[in-house]
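Predict the 3D structure for this chain.
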Amino acid sequence: MSELFHQLEARIKALIERYQTLAHAHRTLTEHNAKLLQEKELLLAKNKAAITQIENMVSRLKSNEST
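Done. Predicted structure below.
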């Protein structure tokens, strides 16, 4: 009976360690994902600004052609 309790105790400790490892990995991935989403938003904003600048340049070039 004592051996069974030692086995259960060892299994529970192993499961707790595995849980802690997975919880840490989850936190790390969640933080990384948040940073990537922020970077994505920044890049989308920069892309939108670049598109606007290019559209303005094309518009000016077209107006210069017609004069």
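The radius of gyration is 29 Å.
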